[in-house]
Design a protein that fits this description.
mainly alpha; Four Helix Bundle (Hemerythrin (Met), subunit A); about 80% helix; about 200 residues; single chain
């Protein structure tokens, strides 16, 4: 497995790695999962209420489609709760009103509990490193050297280390332009941005 994550009850990181092979992609999906959890749970509850009040094919379909989307999200992060979401999806497909009314609330409670557990992990992983001026300018030198040598791997690695720092406001604009130049491999612009950043240090 290419990334190491702390254990979380109900999550199998090996399964997650099958769908999300890089840690960067995993964290993007986890961040979205955590930030949208309340909305996803509330929407499913609303569709459950619609089925309870008016069990039409359209309302069952709305419930099924949303349960399917939640199931897919859970599967991608290796969550055991995927099985319960699948059961609700089938209940919507087969118009099993009793199953929907009986199991939706417990499912959403577990879903929100899982999101809370993951919130701590996401926050820790996305936390920016404290800014150290010497380290920052050493990485800028690395970026210049790598760009001059057209060492793409070294260039990207140094830029990644910079992006993980908590950049002071006075450098934010230039670092943003540097990131874009590195991403597009515009060598003259990369070197120009590095020089601009170094001049700001002198000032």
């Amino acid at each position: 497995m290419e990334y190491n994550m702390p254990p979380v009850a109900g999550i199998d990181w090996e399964k997650a790695h099958h769908y999300l092979p890089s840690k960067e992609l995993l964290l993007e999906v986890l961040t979205e999962f955590v930030s949208s959890a309340d909305k996803q749970a509330n929407t499913l509850t609303e569709f459950k209420d619609m089925v309870e009040q008016n069990p039409t094919p359209d309302n069952y379909a709305s419930f099924r489609i949303h349960a399917h989307a939640m199931k897919s999200a859970l599967r991608s992060i290796g969550a055991d709760l995927f099985a319960e979401a699948y059961e609700l999806e089938i209940a919507g497909k087969e118009e099993q009103k009793d199953v929907i009314l009986e199991k939706t609330e417990d499912f959403t409670i577990e879903y929100l509990s899982l999101a809370e557990s993951l919130k701590v992990i996401v926050g820790a992983c996305n936390k920016k490193a404290a800014f150290n001026e010497d380290d920052f300018f050493a990485e800028i030198d690395e970026i210049k050297d790598a760009m001059t040598a057209f060492d793409i791997s070294g260039l990207q690695d140094a830029m990644k280390r910079v992006s993980e720092m908590s950049i002071p406001s006075e450098f934010v604009d230039e670092v943003g332009e540097l990131e874009e130049a590195v991403r597009n491999l515009v060598s003259n612009r990369v070197l120009e941005c590095c020089e601009n950043i170094e001049e700001m240090r002198i000032q």
